[in-house]
Every structure is written in structure tokens, then in C-alpha cells.
Amino acid sequence: MHTKAFWPTPRRLGYHMNWVGMIAALVVCFWALVAVIGPMLSPYPPGEIVDFDYYGPISAKLWMGSDYLGRDIFSRVLMGARYTVGISLAAVCLACISGVVLGMTAAVVGGWLDTGLSRFLDALNSIPSKLFGLVMVAAIGSSIPVLIVLLGVIYTPGAYRFARALAVNINTMDFVTVARARGERTGYLVTREILPNITGPVLADLGLRFVFIVLLLSGLSFLGLGVQPPNADWGSLVRENIGGLPFGAPAVLMPSLAIASLTISVNLLIDNLPVKIRDRSE
Amino acid sequence: MVPAPIFPKGPAMNPQIVRLVLGRLGVALVTLLIVSFVVFAATQMLPGDVVEILLGQAATPEAVAALREAMHLNDPALLQYGRWLIGLAQGDLGMSYANNLPVAGMIGGRLANTLMLAAVTAAVAVPVALFLGITTAMHRGSVYDRIVTTGIVAVISVPEFMIATLAVLVFAVWLKWLPALSFANDVTSLAEMLRVFAMPVITLCCVISAQMIRMTRAAVIDALTMPYVEMALLKGASRRRMVMRHALPNAIGPIVNAVALSLSYLLGGVIIVETIFNYPGIAKLMVDAVATRDLPLIQTCAMIFCLGYLTLITLADIIAILSNPKLRK
């Protein structure tokens, strides 16, 4: 194609995406961008009291009203994106990488390693996630690195189970048998034979798990056990302003809407991923 | 050819079913043991010296050493774990660090409150969810189906506290039907009880019925693709008869399984709902215990929750085994 400005739209790259997926992708990209440059866009410093009225309404000056101390909610939501998206993204990467590595290794090695690991991680999986979070926060306290590791550990068993099921299927394929007959090591089998064949589903699973982690992180913060003041993610913002709920203050509603827009968009994006145009099978 | 009877002959059950069910119960027991170990290890082994928290200002080295000895904290970890487990099995739940009351006494009434909330929620949510799940499957692809399924995706992907805050906004702030965030401990009349229960129950119902509708719908749709259902259609059965008489009896197993699984979502919901509505239940007790780092109370509450969760999951699995027609002789 010899157009002057070649802009790699999905269609030019040979992909088709429906409009629901398009909108969802835009919202996800928007929040990712806000997480990176959000504080630069905020009209006021997030910690500064700018309004004498607490739980103020939406106005031209304060786009999302003011919170229980009279701080600008819009600036605080922009700042909170950094914590919600950042912590969740780090945790989901941790969970999926460890889950996928363990899952593939268990499937390839098999034997007692597979049985033992599966049993143990299944047992971990049968502790309700919110409860696990509560117990661990009670024991070790709450800071951002702890939260990342904790959320990562809570969602590792799920990622493990998913990756193992995929890897077990690939493991029975002829090319793996051939590689094994060539005398390749486990590391080679896992990285060169199994991994490239499960990347797609694993990435979709990563998206779903990201939603779970955002929800759990917000839930913990809402209980006052997640991100601690003076920092605030979206769950903490809802918690600190819950007193405004009887008046229907926008300070409660706006951070909740931010969470909902992110999680619903990620879900919709996964359900409407771009499909290759030539591939009419689905 | 003799047609296979639908139910197992006589009182004797299929030995394969008995073996599978017993195996499942065994797995549940082992899991409970591992879970108890994780809970114990997390709360007991990790940094933060209990004794120093307990003594506070009076934490002289001698007092710390003496109390450590008195609380058997110098014993090997496994011994402590064993002692804790035996105490738990005998109903000795230890003393709360915060106010030195026996944990069993603190939990008793609160557990009843939480179970009451769960029972009311289940009584409301299960019939509604089954109705919606079955009717959406019957009218798959219709506008009604699409509205319900979109609503489910929305409910599943937002946090529970958001559903609670929306319920408050709608029913208390805009419609002014119910009180906002108060819980009256002295309930005198039935009307008052309804008002108090309404908001937590509405929230929890949304949380658990979303999953239940989704799984019920999937189970019925699955049954509707079977050849015998098509046969019923070809014979001229009405859509209603096709679903009610032919598909549904065979989907009962998966549906009951789905109901038991969805009820396990109550746990996550109940923690948020009791906190937001200030409901005097066991989850609120546990969240408060986490804030004060009251370890014996946390351990007991965690074990009660895990036990409830495991019971529901195991029940779901056993129902799935029992309802599998391939296992009938």
C-alpha cells in the first residue's frame, strides 16, 4: 500500500474488530495512558484542599465534585489510576508468569512434581480470595510491594491450572515427542515447543485475571486494608468518601464508575478481540 | 435389548459412585488440613511479635520472655500447629487478644446473624436466578435474553461495594424507601426486620444470582442441544413442554451444581456487605479483628469461612457425581 501516511489500523494489518471491542480498547488505552501521565493532567494537586464545601457537587471548577475534605475528586481519580492499574498490572504479570512457568513445567515433567504441585495449588485455590487477602494483610500489614506479591500469589493457582491444562494438550503432540526424542532438555521443551503454542489463550486469561485482581484490590482498599493513606487507589477513594453516600455525593460515585469502566471494558475487549480477516472459521 | 433403568436398582448404590464420593470427601479433608496449615502459618509464623503487641507499654524483656513461655510460643512450630488444631477440633478456640474474652463466645451470636443473612439471600436469589436462567435459555438470542446477559456481565465485572452503593443510592437516596447505612440491633416488628434486611439482601442477591443465572442458562442451553430434545421438537412439542419435560430433568444435576457453586460467592460478598451496612455478623467481626490484629479471632473466622466454602464446593462436586447418568448401572 502506497498511501502517504501509513497508519497501522487493525484493518490494514489484516485484522477485523467490531465496534464494541473498539470502544472497549479505547477505554482500556485511555486508563493506561492516565496511569502513566495522569498527574500531569490533573487541574489541582491531589492532596490539596481546594473547596471549603465538602462533598461538593459537580461544577465547572471541580469536574467530579469535592471529597470529604474538599479536595478535587477529578485529580484524585487521575492519581488513583496509577495505583489501581499499576498494582494490578504488576500483580497479574507476577501471577501469570509464575503460574504459566509452573504449569508448563508440571505438564512437561509430570510425575510426582505434577501431582504434588497440583494438589497444593488446588488447596490454595480453595481459600476464598478475599479471605486470603484479609488473613495475609492481618499478618504482614499492607504496603504496595506486599499487595503486589499477595495479589500475585492469590491468583497464581488459577493461572497455573489454566496453563497446565493447555500445556498437557500440547505435550501430547507429535512435535513435542520428536523434540523429546532428539534429547532436548525440559527448558527447551517448555520455552520453544510449548510456550509459543499457548500464548494466545494465556494472554486472554491474563486479561480476565487482571479484572479479578482489580476487583480484589479495590475490595481490600475499600475495607481499609489495601493501599494506605496518603496514597489512594479507586477503592480507597470510595472508602474515604462513603460518608457522602446518604447525600448521593459524586465523590462516592465517580471512583466506582472509574473501576466499573475499566473492568467492564477489559471484559468486553477479551470477548471481542480482533480476528484475522482471512480466518473465517470462527 | 433391555433399556437401562433410570434409577439404580434396589437400595444398594453403585460402588463406583460410592468410591467417587468418598474420594471427593477425602480430597476435601486433605484440602481443609492444608488450608488450616496455611491459615495458621500465615497468622502465627510471620513477623510481628504477638507478645509485644499484647503487652504494649509493659513489654519489658522479662515480661516478654515469661509470656512467651506461658503461651507456648517457644515450642516448635509443628507442635504449636498440632495443639491449635486439636483445640479447634475440640471447640477450644482460644482467647481474643483484644479483650481477653473466649473467641467461641464472641462468635456464637454473630455466626447466627451471618447464617440468617445467607439463608434469606439464598431463599430470595435461588428462585429468581433459576427463573431468569431457564427463561433466558428458552428465549436465547431474544431482546430479553440480551438485556439479562448484558446485565450479568456488568454485575460480574464491578466490585461488590459498588452494587451496594448503587442500591443505597437508588432505594435510600432517590426513592427514600429504606434507611441508608444504619443497622438497628433492636428489631421489634416484622416490618422493621424487612427494612433492615432489605438492602444487604438486595446487594448479595445481585452478586450471587449473576453467577447462578449464567451457569443455569449454560446448563439448560447445553441440554437443549441434545438429540432427544430435537426429537421432541420434531414430534411437535411446544417450546415450553420441550424445556420443562425433556431438557430440564436432565439439566437438574448441572443446575444444582451451579447453585451450590454460586452460593460460595456469598463469602466474598458477605465480607463487603456486612462492612458497608454495619451488619453485626461474623465477617464484620473478622474485618475488625484484622484492624486490631487479633490473631485467634482471625484464625477462627478464617477457618469458619474456609469450612463453609469447602462444604459448598464439595457439595457441588458430589451433586455432579450423583447426577451423572453415565455412573448409573
Features:
heterodimer; A: 282 residues; mainly alpha; MetI-like fold; two-stranded antiparallel ribbon; 9 helices; globular; B: 329 residues; 0% strand
Describe the structure.
The complex is a heterodimer of chains A (282) and B (329). Chain A is mostly helical and 282 residues long. Chain A has one domain: MetI-like (MetI-like fold), CATH 1.10.3720.10. Helices cover 67% and strands 1% of the residues of chain A. Chain A contains nine helices and two strands. In chain A, strands 1-2 form a two-stranded antiparallel sheet. In chain A, helix 1 crosses helix 9 and helix 2 runs antiparallel to helix 7. Chain A is globular, with a radius of gyration of 22 Å. The two termini of chain A are 28 Å apart. Chain B is mainly alpha-helical and 329 residues long. Helices cover 74% and strands 0% of the residues of chain B. Chain B contains 13 helices and no strands. The longest helix of chain B has 36 residues. Chain A: Keywords: Cell membrane, Membrane, Transmembrane, Transmembrane helix, Transport. Chain A: This is ABC transporter permease subunit. Chain A: One of its GO terms (biological process) is transmembrane transport. Chain A: One of its GO terms (cellular component) is plasma membrane. Chain A: InterPro entries: BP-dependent_transpt_permease, MetI-like, MetI-like_sf.
DSSP helix fraction of chain A: 55-70%
Q: Tell me the Rg of chain A in angstroms.
A: 22 Å
Structural class of chain B: mainly alpha
User: How many β-strand runs of chain B?
Assistant: 0
Share of β-strand residues of chain A: under 5%
Overall CATH class of chain A:
Mainly Alpha
Distance between the termini of chain B: 15 Å
Instruction: State the distance separating the first and last CA atoms of chain A.
Output: 28 Å
CATH H level, superfamily name of chain A: MetI-like
Number of helices of chain B: 13
What is the CATH-assigned architecture of chain A?
Orthogonal Bundle
Tally of helical runs of chain A:
9
Spans of at least 5 consecutive residues with low confidence of chain B: none
How many beta-strand runs of chain A? 2
Oligomer: heterodimer
The largest pleated sheet of chain B is described as: none
GO biological process, one term (chain A): transmembrane transport
Main location (chain A): membrane
InterPro entries (chain A): BP-dependent_transpt_permease, MetI-like, MetI-like_sf
Membrane topology (chain A): Multi-pass membrane protein
